[in-house]
Each structure stands twice: as structure tokens, then as C-alpha cells.
Amino acid sequence: MNIYETDKLLSEYLLFHYARAEDYLSYGFGPADALEYPRRCVDGWVDWSLLGTGGRALDLGCAVGRSTFELARRGASALGIDYSRRFVDAAEQVRAGGAVTVRRFEEGDRFTEVRVERPQGVDPGLVRFEAGDAMELRADLGVFDVVLMANLIDRLSDPRRCLDRMGGLVRAGGQLVVTSPYTWLEEFTPRAHWLGGTADGQSTLEGLRAALESAFELEKSGDVPFLIREHARKYQWSVAQATVWRRR
Fold first, then answer.
1. Coil, strand or helix: which one is 5?
2. Could you name the CATH architecture of 3-247?
3. How confident is the model at residue 2 (pLDDT cuts 50, 70, 90)?
4. Are strands 77-82 and 56-60 parallel, antiparallel or unpaired?
5. Which of 51, 61, 103, 146 has the smallest count of CB within 10 Å of its CB?
6. Which of 167, 136, 166, 134 is nearest to 152 (CA)?
């Protein structure tokens, strides 16, 4: 079974995307700068001059949708696409209903229920979600001012197939933002399709450059920490690399 269709991952991602800091990090210490990763992927890296009223944004690999809402915060329309039907359905539930209740596991099977809410200050009418395969996107998507791919490329069986489509999805002068911890695993991506990270090969950044340089120019890169809560005493702390590419 696809792990991204399980109850466990759905709960973890709803909390990861929407939980308040006090509901997420159970202690008065810890890496607070790693919270609200989906929001920070937008706030820290997107060129806001591209996303005013009338702009279009695509959140590819949107999971349960927090970044999609953030892309619409200044008046642009935002489309979130994810392969997981359960993730997309949950994102739509947040959009339409404004909130959902999530099981937050404490230890073993013990849990508490936490209510998570749609981000304030965003018009939900500007946001849409749909299920789709990032490597087989429908042909009529059109072009976008900004495309965000957060923590996606190392979960695709052939990331180059996805990247090859970007030149046709981002308008001239538009922006592609890619964030990833580059956790290459053969259970998701056959080694022959890794963009980087093999013992005798290139880095993933070099692989991204090779895949995108015909249509994009690398503008900047940097580190973006994030924290995924499994239960009250276990968290995953990771550091993604963000790269920002401008369409020529």
C-alpha cells in the first residue's frame, strides 16, 4: 500500500502543515525555527511580485495543501496537485470546511485530538486541489507565474520526467522553486533515476542544474530546516535545500 494513503501519514502531514506551534512541539525547547515548513517554503523563496491579483501558482506535490493556500495569500489563484487521493481530499476538506480534527499520537496507540484550521487571510475561492501524477500532468494546465515543488523530487520514480515539463509550465520570467532534503531511496526512485547522491556521481544540485539549465537560470539556494512529529517523544529533524530558478 502507498504509505501516503495511510491514516498515520495523513495525520502526520495535517499536523506538519497546519498545527499551531504549541500543539506540535511538546516542549519549551527544540528547533522552533523548523516549524511551519510549508509556509516558509513560500514566504522565504517565492518572488511575491509575481503573485498579485491575476497571478497563477502551481503547488506540485502539495500534500495536504498548506503551501497552496500561502501561494494564494496575495490574490493569485493557486492549484495544488498531489498523487495521494487521501491527501487531496483532506486538503479540500480544509479548504471547504475551514478546519479538520486530527489524531496526534502521544505514545504507542495513545492519542489526543487536535483541531487544525485553514490559514487566516486567504480567500479559499482562489485555491483548488486535484489528484494527479507529477510525471504525467494533464496537457491543459496552462502556464504559471510560480511553480513550487516542495519535498517532491526524491519521491518520484523518474524525477527528470517531471522536470522536463517545467519549461512549458513556467512562463518567461516566472519562477520555479524546488525544495528537498535529497533523501534518495530505491523504494521510491530506482538508483538509475536519482538526480544525484550516488557514491561515484554528482550532487543533486548538479543534477538539477543539468536537468533545468536549458530553460532556467539558478538565482539562489539555501537551507530550510523542517520538523516532522511522529509522537510526543520522536521527531524527524531534516534540512532541505531550496533552489530558485528563473525561467529564461
1. helix
2. 3-Layer(aba) Sandwich (3.40)
3. confident
4. parallel
5. 103
6. 134
CA–CA dist 204, 90 (Å, integer): 31
> Could you read off the pLDDT of 8-33 as tens digits, one per residue?
999 999 999 999 999 999 899 999 99
- State the DSSP H helix or E strand holding residue 99, giving kind and residue range, or none if neither: strand 99-107
Question: Which pLDDT band holds residue 1 (cuts at 50, 70, 90)?
Answer: low
Give the integer Cα–Cα distance in Å for 204 and 22: 35
Which residues, other chains included, contact 67 with Cβ-Cβ below 8 Å and sequence gap of 6+? Answer: 17, 38, 39, 41, 42, 59, 80, 148, 150
Q: Which residues have C-beta within 8 Å of that of residue 174, sequence separation ≥ 6? A: 50, 143, 144, 145, 146, 147, 246, 247
Q: Is 156 helix (H, G, I), strand (E, B) or coil?
A: coil
